[in-house]
Design brief:
The chain is mostly beta strands and 219 residues long. It is built from two helices and 13 strands. It starts with 8 loop residues before the first strand and ends in an 8-residue tail after the last strand.
């Protein structure tokens, strides 16, 4: 993995006031329009909410943009492998998660870790890019999106996923694939649907317009 030359930590502060106009993102050093190899941390008081890593970060008055490195031949190769794995063999969940981690290790995509009330990791998100709303701190992840929860052992695969910070819910109106990691090759726990909603650890979920019958053993 290329040695990170510059790591800049940003703090996004949440306010508990009911007035939404006061829930503005505060970024240290507003003179920086673009940051390279960046970590961004979102917290509320002493509680972690999200830690994210991206190859490139830029901002405007409305959003913070996290982008991947699409140009290197190595990241293109892994990205294509990831897309094919998701389409052809979604039940190979451990393989898909490992490929996603490989893509990040060569600075190829965005990685975000979501935390619960006990400052423990609830889920890990990988995507080609993401943007965070300055006002509501919602995150929209796009392209080769993978969310894995070590809490529920579920993995979500899709092209566009929204993290609604105020509701603390993961939402999608697009086609998604949900995989239950069982460790048993004889059990295939894959559910497809158009639309999905869940908590950040992929628990308390709702499927919309499901394809096929939901297996009660898996879900």
């Amino acid at each position: 993995m290329t040695k990170i030359i510059t790591i800049i930590f940003l703090s996004i502060l949440f306010y508990s006031c009911g007035d939404d106009t006061k829930k503005q993102v505060k970024i240290k050093n507003r003179n920086l329009d673009k940051l390279i190899n960046t970590n961004i941390s979102i917290s509320k008081g002493n509680q972690k909410i999200v830690n994210a890593v991206a190859k490139e970060l830029s901002k405007d008055e409305i959003h913070i943009y996290l982008k991947a490195d699409y140009l290197s031949d190595e990241s293109k190769k892994i990205r294509n492998k990831l897309s094919c794995s998701i389409i052809e063999n979604p039940e190979a969940s451990n393989h898909i998660r490992n490929v996603a981690e490989d893509l990040h290790s060569v600075e190829g995509n965005v990685k975000a870790e979501f935390y619960n009330n006990y400052n423990e990791i609830s889920s890990v998100l990988y995507s080609d890019s993401a943007k965070i709303s300055n006002r509501y701190n919602n995150m929209l992840a796009q392209g080769n999106v993978i969310i894995y929860s070590p809490v529920t052992n579920l993995m979500l695969l899709g092209d566009q996923i929204l993290w609604d910070n105020r509701a603390r819910r993961i939402l999608s109106e697009d086609n998604v694939t949900i995989v239950k990691i069982t460790g048993d090759d004889d059990i295939s726990c894959v559910q497809k649907s158009k639309g999905f909603e869940s908590d950040m650890d992929l628990s308390n979920y709702i499927f919309y317009e499901t394809t096929g019958k939901i297996s009660e053993v898996c879900f």
